[in-house]
Amino acid sequence: MFYSIRHLTKFRYSVAVSESIMEVRKTPRSEGAQGCLSSTLTVLPRARIFSYRDYLGNTVHHFDVPGHHRQLAIVAESLVDVHDVPVLPSSLGATAWKDLDDAVAVGDFWEMLMPSTFARSSPRLDDLAFRLGVERRSDPLSLIRELNSAIYVWFDYAPKTTRVDSPIEEALGARRGVCQDFAHVMIALVRRLGIPCRYVSGYLFHDKSAHERSSPAASHAWVEAYLPELGWLGFDPTNDVAAGERHIRTAIGRDYADVPPTKGTFKGNASSELTVAVSVELTSGPPPPDQSQAMPEDWQAMAAPEPEAQQQQMQQQQQ
Questions:
Q1: d(Cα 166, Cα 184) in Å, to the nearest integer?
Q2: Same domain, 246 and 210
Q3: Most distant CA pair in the chain: distance in Å?
Q4: Which domain does 159 fall in, by range?
Q5: pLDDT digits over 45-97, tens only?
Q6: pTM of the model
């Protein structure tokens, strides 16, 4: 399947700021069943954009806007090809837990097993683990499927009930949150079992017949767990599904702290207002080489510049 993706992030400042420094992680990964055929990043005010690959293979763009400006708009556009994902077995064999422990003993998984910024133990997590019976039984794949469904049932999906930097204690206390919270809770529970687990940032193409709870106008998040014989497998506790051909991977990390779509600072005594828009559309295939893919007029309007020392983090929560 081919997907055309647009992701706009726009910051408006109450007064002109003198400089913005930003990192951006919006380029889809190319590996396994997914290939990023093209990707562009546009910044207004215009800036020279640099990029590098971090140690987990994520593409990171970074730039500096040194002049005075009242707003900053970042638009990422990508074309991605995602092949069908193999059907998972119903369960793993009787030696699966031993095979997992053997793989962990000789592999480099420690970062995805240790507590991290947002995926760590807490009294409320301990209570949830007890209520859900989070202990080794059956086989690793069957147990992760159980947890994926249990978290979906236990928590309500409720946008704007948590913040981008909220600890999982808030979502656990309220029993509600967004995909970022669902992912962090599941990662923390899965790691308790000695199963390597990591955070995935990306996009979900919404099938109207599937009734997903996550927002189609925002980026998405889910988890990947490492299982013997199968490798890294994706699970989406927000929607109680295994990650498939509609899940488009952008970045992986220990948790959200490693992979925010945008992260930066600005200089100036100003407040900021954030606007985010995401569009994921199914397309028949790559356009002809000579065909221009013009940005839709409504997106052009959102990104267009408006008429014309303190630092603040600039991040966006995944829904």
A1: 11
A2: yes
A3: 67
A4: 96-258
A5: 999 999 999 999 999 999 999 999 999 999 999 999 999 888 899 999 999 99
A6: 0.91
102 & 250 share domain: yes
3-state SS of the chain is CEEEEEEEEEEEEEEEECEEEEEECCCCCCECCEEEEEEEEEEECCCCCEEEECCCCCEEEEEEECCCEEEEEEEEEEEEEECCCCCCCCCCCCCHHHHHHHHHHHCCCHHHCCCCCCCCCCHHHHHHHHHHCCCCCCCHHHHHHHHHHHHHHHCEECCCCCCCCCCHHHHHHHCEECHHHHHHHHHHHHHHCCCCEEEEEEEECCCCCCCCCCCCCCCEEEEEEEECCCEEEEEECCCCEECCCCEEEEEEECCHHHCCCEEEEEECCCCEEEEEEEEEEEECCCCCCCCCCCCCHHHHHHHCCCCCCCCCCCCCCCC
* Domain total in the chain: 2
- The percentage of the chain sitting over the pLDDT mark of 90, rounded to a whole number, equals 80
Same domain, 22 and 73: yes
The CATH code of the domain that includes 162 is 3.10.620.30
